[in-house]
């Protein structure tokens, strides 16, 4: 069992029951709630790439992709405040917000992807995308990577082996390694079982599998899935919105045009906003046959927040920043790793960086040691041995310096 | 097929393709998106119980329960703005917001309900509650009402017959009329089938079934379900937070203490915030065994918005207002109905009011005629013949006057 994404090597029950806040949390929220770090952090304020605790100490945030344009970005705060004081209803009334945003979002994608539907979370849009794929293909079989995470509803928990625990992968699901070499065999197995192939769904940077940027693996897999009648869902919840540096969407690095694209986390810098973009011919039968309404999805405030995030990405050239700063970060990390045998590989794309170390314990010690030096990261991967470095996209070269200074100090004490 | 909640008699494809906004919507959002009213409304501003269109005309909102404490309530706007400019992270870091709010929320419920988990939508928490119920009981069978609506994920679509269209009720689901008289037979059927009884889940005012306030039907059904090893989930997404006037929660009117309680829509006056409260012994096995993390659920901004809504409900005594104003509204509607044969019944609790008329066409004409007089309502019920009157809880006696003046005029022309 992986526990890589959810109950990862970096999440804790919160043992310090003498802390009244931790004790109250445990009592009222129950055992499902976990905290990061052996010594949890108690944050009260954020600004850009920095987070501050109750004692005023600053932490360098090298983990949070939700606050993608920076914590508390004033342009987003202003846009939300303004719309929240003006109107917040739903999509059964006409409003420009959803139309204007949809136009901008679809313009950032290949022409083939021409429609979009809105929800609140990545879980909701992945759940929806599976239903669309199954309706379009008439098949139910699904191919995923072996340590995928696609969300927390019943349907997407069944395609999220990284959750671990008592959660089980569905009988209609086949898993393949993140090099996707196993896709043809998975197709054959699904066809023989009578389930058929509805979809291959992957996170286009293979986040919870351990961050694998190789752009050569996806195209042949998608071609094989399509030949078997299936569609390709690009889960851009983590890599999307420019994080991988080379393009706005992770799938673009792979030279593939998906059938369905799901997105969420950084979409509105912390407000619950998610979307599924689609080729209209793939969406059509589902959208005509099965009524779908999402109370908060695409509401005026959600759209104002999402539009403000696009503004900042454009105005502050954050995709180019992710490429430049991410490249510098990986180069410096590779230099620090040098010939150390306990650091196996530094990899990634843009500001999604993985550092594979020699085991779960090493990763855990590094993450907690970095936290003690006030730098926030986490782990991922099937064996919990990949440092997950995924900062806000406003991460600067100065932030790289701070990160690497602390990382060097931590390595020296390992 | 019911179409009562989703593709109800009051939702339209938006035929006026000569309106560029409607045409752009249709092209980019696809056929799943519907608009209210034969002549859709284009709203730009809201305040209290009023909504305004682009030409500055005001509409009396007698439909929207999301903006429960009134459109654009300044206390909620201020709370969100302040927290959004301060910090917005997630539950893996310590924060007072979620602990303080949980304490207040649980204090509003019976002592037996002692834990709470957060998500973003009613769909997410109903999906979660089903999984908790199935884990706790080891059974999979579910009993619902015949025109229930519990959300839009794959798992809750299967318990939402009111969606209609090509969406199908699951093979593990049994439906009963909203008088719940069929529960013993449904239990027997699930037991014979080997599925067992995991849960009875009902909206405690039977919203999409047609609004049935009778407080005598639920207790015997819950007793029978518990005797069969099942649990009771109170879906408070619509009736919760004081709307029914007699208490904070719909289940209190029925004298029943649920095992799980789900809530959403009005919880944060328009921000996507939802929760599942639970008896800890029912939640325990699930919460220990199956990791669950919701990226935005319970974040500092969500909790600030939800806390501000509780403040307003308390400060403005909105539960008492719902009782007083709702009672006055029903009395006046009953007077207007008089001995008319086309109006069969006026019913409800607090500010959740249903007016049953003699058929779908009458309901449709009334809803559209009210819209032309700038009063917004909709329909529900298995036959689409119940007017759904569910205004923000700040609805005043003056609003009742305006509503009834227009309703009288509309009835006169029917």
Automatic annotation (TrEMBL), chains A, B:
Protein origin, superkingdom: Bacteria
Pfam families: Aminotran_3 (PF00202)
UniProt keyword annotations, A-Z: Aminotransferase, Pyridoxal phosphate, Transferase
GO molecular function terms listed in the Swiss-Prot or TrEMBL record: pyridoxal phosphate binding; transaminase activity
Family matches, as SUPFAM superfamilies: PLP-dependent transferases (SSF53383)
Homology family: Belongs to the class-III pyridoxal-phosphate-dependent aminotransferase family.
Record's protein name: 4-aminobutyrate aminotransferase-like enzyme
